[in-house]
Structures are given as structure tokens and as C-alpha cells.
Design a protein that fits this description.
5-stranded mixed sheet, 6-stranded mixed sheet, about 40% helix, globular, single chain, alpha/beta
Length: about 450
């Protein structure tokens, strides 16, 4: 079957600078186009959430006008994490979900993410239908068919209660001291309430969003402030979310970073180490997943299957295999036994629950996971495809890959699905070779960009 090459949708919705693709004129038309497609599917309303970046006010107004002009009712919830909108879309009858967010990007960008009426990210086929509708002539429905808008006043409270259900092994977080970095983002209000209501002693940082400081020197992509706060507060753990609350990174008491691969290993070990589990013992990672995770899971007789990079592809592979647990090194963790999409708060609860809140238990359980040296280089370029297809670049990549094969090495080169970047990942069991190969590829790519 012919698949239309998408013009606007990337690996996680539509994202870009506010004065380019995510301008209000386009977003108005996008809302109308999505509304027309949703209406054809029997969806009568959309739940619209957002993060805290200043452009959210602008785009919220634009996209709700688009939906209303297509005859779709709008339910506004204000700043809430992306996974909260997935949960709400699944909770309301005949409702889709929309999130206005550029995730871990700076305030200069924004984006639009969609969830269907099951709370799942849209299929490729639905994204193509929306893109095709964008090309159609904008036509407002008759006046008596226009949609209406209102607010869901208790949306945050509903989501908080939903998250708390992820704690199953322990009664509460009593005695646990945490530092929580909410990235001045969408989770700034609900995330602290979840952990406080579960009984944790909590220090919250990066929780004063001003529209311009989302992800700025904070959150899951910059954990230096979190490390400092963990040390100053003598906390058991620190945890950082990203701007829209679907990524998670931990910091242990000794200030060691615990990334998505390590969290996934602990969650898998907890899930499958008991013989009562029925079904295939399997986990989905991506092509970026550290080889050390695959080796460590294999020792536990747990299979690792890799998907393309992007949590939507992890989810698709989980559904294809009928599995429940998957994730990315960057901190997107999907636990389908508790949520329908990646959820940083729920993953944090499950991780802490699995190790009984103890750094000693964490270190004991992680000791067999030995990460391979891995280097990720990001090269800014307006045309990453040009570099990927360059014959000389590919010849160099092939030669260098052969050079590290004996060191269990591999190279992954791809374009970012969310930014104008070429991502180069090099991994082997020789740290010096890994570093040298990554730098050589980066230098060559920069000369081509």
C-alpha cells in the first residue's frame, strides 16, 4: 500500500519554531482539519491541554477556533502533562486529546500532539488523513453546528488519583525524601501533589514557570541543579521530568544519574523475576538502547526487541507483540499495565516501588547491568537527509563501524524527528575508540552541513 510522505507530522506530532510551522494561522487550519477527520470517526469533542510556554496562550486560542469551526466541542484543561491528556481522552466518551507542547525543546518552539478516543497516539493513517485535509479549502460549518467550549475544572485531580494507583507493592512513600525537578513545565502543579499525597518528604525545584523558562537549565535534559539539590537536602533520590511530563531521569543519593535504560532494567527485573508472571518475558527498547541493557536482560532470560527511535514506535511494537513494558534511554518509559502512553510520574512511582525506596536495593539490583561506553553527537543542519545520503559520509561510517566490530561496536545515524539535527550514536566496549569514532563522524558531518 502506498504511504504518503508526511509534510508536517514528525515522530511526535508537529513541532517547530513559533514563527514557522507552529504559527497561529497554520494551527487554526490544523484544528479544523483534525476536527473534520475526527468528526468522520464519530468523535464529537477534544480535550486540549498545554505546557507552560508563553506561546501556548496563542496556539490554544487558534486550535480551539479550528475545532469549533469544524463542529467539534472543546474541553480546556490548561497546563497538564501530556500523559494526563491521554488518560482524559480515554476517560471521556467520544473525545480525542490534544496537547500544545514542544516537550523538551526551549520556549522558542511549540508543537501539537494528538491522542485518539482510546488515549493512544494517532496512527500514521490518521496523520495522513489530517495532512490531506489541511490541503482542502477551509469551510466553517453552519452556525447551528458550531462546536462549544468549556473547561474541565477537576482534570488535575482526576489525573493525580490515576497516577497514585501505580503504587502497588508499598502502601505509601512515608520515610522517603525526594527532590523533584518539574522543568518549569506542564507538571509543575500536579506532580508535587502526587508525591506529597503519597507521603513523600518533598523538595520541589524549577516550579515557577514564567512562559520563557521551560526546560531552561533544568528538567530531564539538564540535571546539574537537581544533583546540587539532592546533595543540599540529603535526599534519597532526585527525579526530573521534562517540559511536558512524559520523560523521567533519576539521580541517586551519591549523585549518579539513572537514565531510561537503567530504569527500564529495574522495572523489567521487578516485573519478570517472579515466576507468577504469565506470558512472554520481553521488553521493547530502541536502536539507541545501550547494548549493556540487552546483555543484562538476557541473563535474566528477558528478551529485548528494538524499535525505531520515538516512544510512538515503542508503543506500536509493544502492541504488536502483546507486551507491556518498553522505553527509551532518554527517559520515555511505557508501562501499559498502568498507562496508555509514556508517563514520567507513573514510571517514577513504579521505579521507587520496585526498589522499596532504597539506594542499597537499587545498587544491589543494578550491579549486573554494565553499560557500554556510548557517545551521542548532535549536528545542527537544515538538511540531515543530505548528510545521511552522502556517499563519502557513508563510506566513512562503514569503515569506522568495521573498525569497532571486534569491540561489539555499532553506529546509528538518524535525523531527529523533532529538531533540525543529525544524531550520531557510537557505542562499543572500548571507551577511547567510541570517543574517537564519534568525533570523526561529527567532524565530517559538520563539514557537509
Amino acid at each position: 500500500m502506498f504511504v504518503r510522505k508526511k509534510k508536517f507530522f514528525g515522530t511526535d506530532g508537529i513541532r517547530g519554531p513559533i514563527n514557522e510551522i507552529t504559527n497561529p494561522e497554520f494551527v487554526l487550519k490544523l484544528g479544523w482539519a483534525a476536527g473534520k477527520v475526527f468528526s468522520e470517526m464519530g468523535i464529537s469533542s477534544v480535550i486540549i491541554g498545554k505546557d507552560t510556554r508563553i506561546s501556548g496562550y496563542l496556539l490554544e486560542t487558534a486550535i480551539q477556533s479550528g475545532f469549533i469551526s469544524a463542529g467539534i466541542d472543546v474541553k480546556l484543561v490548561g497546563p497538564l502533562p501530556t500523559p494526563a491528556i491521554s488518560f482524559l481522552a480515554n476517560s471521556f466518551k467520544n473525545a480525542a486529546g490534544v496537547v500544545i507542547s514542544a516537550s523538551h525543546n526551549s520556549y522558542l518552539d511549540n508543537g501539537i500532539k494528538f491522542f485518539d478516543s482510546r488515549g493512544k497516539k494517532l496512527s500514521e493513517e490518521l496523520e495522513n488523513r489530517i495532512e490531506k485535509m489541511i490541503d482542502e479549502k477551509f469551510q466553517v460549518v453552519e452556525a447551528d453546528c458550531l462546536g462549544k467550549a468549556n473547561r474541565i475544572s477537576d482534570a488535575g485531580g482526576r489525573y493525580i488519583e490515576f497516577c497514585k494507583k501505580a503504587l502497588t507493592k508499598n502502601e505509601n512513600f512515608s520515610g522517603l525524601k525526594l527532590v523533584l525537578d518539574v522543568a518549569n513545565g506542564a507538571a509543575y502543579d500536579v506532580a508535587p501533589k502526587v508525591f506529597k499525597e503519597l507521603g513523600a518528604e518533598l523538595k520541589v525545584i524549577s516550579n515557577k514557570p514564567d512562559g520563557l523558562n521551560i526546560n531552561k537549565n533544568c528538567g530531564s535534559t539538564d540535571i546539574e541543579c537537581l544533583k546540587k539539590a539532592v546533595a543540599e537536602n540529603n535526599a534519597d533520590f532526585g527525579l526530573a521530568l521534562d517540559g511536558d511530563g512524559d520523560r523521567l531521569v533519576f539521580v541517586s543519593k551519591d549523585l549518579t544519574e539513572i537514565d531510561g535504560d537503567q530504569i527500564l532494567y529495574l522495572l523489567a527485573k521487578e516485573k519478570f523475576q517472579h515466576n507468577i508472571y504469565l506470558g512472554t518475558r520481553g521488553v521493547v527498547g530502541t536502536h539507541m538502547t545501550n547494548q549493556g541493557l540487552e546483555d543484562a536482560l538476557k541473563e535474566l532470560d528477558i528478551e529485548l526487541i528494538r524499535s525505531d527511535v520515538g516512544d510512538r514506535y515503542v508503543l506500536e511494537k509493544l502492541e504488536e507483540l502483546g507486551w507491556e513494558l518498553g522505553g527509551e534511554q532518554s527517559g520515555h518509559l511505557i508501562c501499559l499495565d498502568s498507562a496508555l502512553t509514556g508517563d514520567g510520574i507513573i514510571a517514577a512511582i513504579k521505579f521507587l516501588d520496585a526498589i522499596n525506596f532504597s539506594n542499597k536495593v537499587y545498587k544491589k539490583n543494578i550491579k549486573n547491568f554494565k553499560k557500554y561506553p556510548q557517545v551521542l553527537k548532535n549536528v545542527k543542519t537544515n538538511d540531515p537527509e543530505k548528510i545521511i545520503k552522502n556517499k563519502k559520509f557513508n563510506a566513512l561510517k562503514k569503515r569506522l563501524e568495521a573498525d569497532i566490530t571486534n569491540n561489539k561496536g555499532r553506529i546509528n545515524v538518524r535525523k531527529s524527528g523533532t529538531e533540525k539535527l543529525l544524531r550520531i550514536m557510537v557505542e562499543s566496549n572500548d571507551s577511547a575508540k567510541t570517543k574517537n569514532v564519534s568525533e570523526e563522524l561529527e567532524s565530517f558531518a559538520k563539514n557537509l552541513s
